[in-house]
Amino acid sequence: MIGTIIVVYNPDLALTERLITxxxxxxxxxxxxxxxxxxxxxxxIVEHYDYIHCPDNIGIAAAHNKGxxxxxxxxxxxxLLLDQDSQIPSDMAFSLSSLLVASKSLEHNIIAIGPQIHCxxxxxxxxxxxxxxxxxxxxLVGVTQIIASGMMIDLGLLDTVGLKDDSLFIDGVDHxxxxxxxxxxxxxxxxxxxEMVHRLGDSRxxxxxxxxxxxxxxxxxxxxxxxxxxxxxxxxxxxWKIRCICFIPIRIFLNAxxxxxxxxxxxxxxxxxxxxxxxxxxxxxxxWS
Length: 289
Fold this sequence. Notes:
alpha/beta, Spore Coat Polysaccharide Biosynthesis Protein SpsA, Chain A, 2 domains, ten-stranded mixed β-sheet, two-stranded antiparallel ribbon, 9 helices, 12 strands, 37% helix, globular, Glycosyltransferase family 2 protein, transferase, glycosyltransferase, Glyco_trans_2-like
């Protein structure tokens, strides 16, 4: 059996309902984990789904974990993770699961496969300039990490790697899990011929001809903090540590000078750096009540 987990938080109902409609029927079980304060009702879109409400917003990692545990308890072999703002093809679950089954004959021990991401803002395929491909085999490319949305996991191998790290709360959660899996000699892959449209960040801005992602101020806290937390871990790739740490001053400049809500952004960035240095984790409210 295959199960789908959709994590939502104050969702754009039109986008989320379109996603639910598209994924419904592709898998055997649909679990919606809702981090919104108020419940959302999707029964007008689909009749049968399992709903887990987390009104205190437990974060993306803990929400994934609740969904994964639910799929395991239901007897699912594979689990598909989706964000509320992704747009998927009508056969994505079948394509990814088929590739996972076929990969059993390979020596790469693949635990998770994701689609090729097509950025909604740039209308282009997302290509990493730094991340090198690990291997290539027919319709699969081995990579260092993939994003959570669109990730299909072989649930039979989940016990070995473990669940998502909920101490990170949100940013870096998907990559950390991939790096942890690779440390245990599992492989992460991207499907060459499966494409998914996804929103990376809330918007885009330009500075001296360069386009960069813009997110909400609170996300800056988690991004800055988690860079410092993850940089201490031995299994996190060196290129990621160097790139992210070197870009901190540039990101401070872009958010403190060029964006709106400057004081709020500065406050979140400073608090993220403080907690990253201290080694504090968990939700923001836990550390800055």
